[in-house]
From TrEMBL:
Organism annotation: Dictyobacter formicarum
Ranges where the Calcineurin-like phosphoesterase domain occurs: 1-177
Name this protein carries in UniProt: Calcineurin-like phosphoesterase domain-containing protein
Family, per entry: Belongs to the metallophosphoesterase superfamily. YfcE family.
Signal peptide: none
Pfam families tied to this protein: Metallophos_2
InterPro entries in UniProt: Ap4A_hydrolase (IPR050126), Calcineurin-like_PHP_lpxH (IPR024654), Metallo-depent_PP-like (IPR029052), Pesterase_MJ0912 (IPR011152)
């Protein structure tokens, strides 16, 4: 069994297609998306269309909820981009977003299981990071157990042992340079890659593969500049060192 774990695409179709093309070269039994699909990127509608064709379960992320009417970020730039993303969505897109689930549990083998969420099983706004105290994690995981617990939200890859479970963050496909919730950890500007994960079970052996795959920076920036997304400088400077515009 091989499960591809995708998270935090954030309206970045170039990055999503790059990852899917890479995964097409190997056997994958199941795709799971861990949320934050369309907001804050230049191609929100196109990403939703592509993900719908993938026909995989999707967990609701905090910015997915923004697109459905929840209060967006307190940051003006993010509110402006979110409002634009909402305008790009069709009724079918909104219906698709409403189908996302708060968490997803899957059996693996030999009594092992996988629990998927965005921030934590308790809330898509929760942060589970390498530096999060065990006491805080205990509160966020209260009532839930699994062999592997996997999420996104922070945009920072992680594998952490907690009691008998592995806590995993597969990073971000579409905005890996943006620290989305761990103030103790820095942003990583001017990235050139996408991040995702693959969970494998073969002959009883469980493995977790965290990946970074390089992106075509020119295609990435062209997709942004060809869109009507506002505040493009905020997005471009996350990728391109020649655009030090600030955020």
């Amino acid at each position: 069994m091989r499960i591809a774990l995708l998270a935090d695409i954030h309206g970045n179709l170039v990055a999503l297609e790059t990852v899917l093309q890479e995964l097409a070269r190997e056997p994958i039994d199941q795709f799971i998306c861990l949320g934050d699909v369309a907001a804050l990127g230049p191609q929100p509608h196109e990403v939703i269309e592509r993900l719908r064709r993938l026909d995989c379960p999707v967990v609701l992320g905090n910015t997915d909820a923004w697109l459905l009417g929840s209060k967006a970020s307190d940051t003006e730039t993010l509110r402006i981009i979110t409002s634009w993303c909402v305008e790009q969505l069709t009724p079918e897109d909104r219906s698709y977003l409403q189908s996302f689930v708060p968490r997803l549990e899957l059996p693996l083998d030999e009594g092992r299981s996988l629990l998927c969420y965005h921030g934590s099983p308790r809330s898509f706004d929760d942060v589970i990071a390498a530096v999060t105290p065990d006491a805080a994690i205990e509160e966020m995981l209260a009532g839930y157990s699994a062999t592997v617990m996997v999420g996104g939200h922070t945009h920072i890859q992680m594998i952490r042992r907690y009691r008998d479970a592995h806590l995993v963050n597969v990073g971000s496909i579409g905005l890996p340079g943006v620290n989305a919730g761990s103030p103790e950890l820095p942003d990583n500007h001017h990235v050139r890659w996408s991040e995702y994960g693959v969970l494998s079970i073969e002959q009883g052996r469980l493995s977790i593969d965290l990946r970074r795959t390089p992106l075509n920076l020119a295609a990435l920036l062209e997709a942004c500049r060809n869109s009507t997304m506002p505040c493009q400088e905020w997005w471009i400077q996350k990728w391109d060192s020649s655009n030090e515009c600030g955020s």
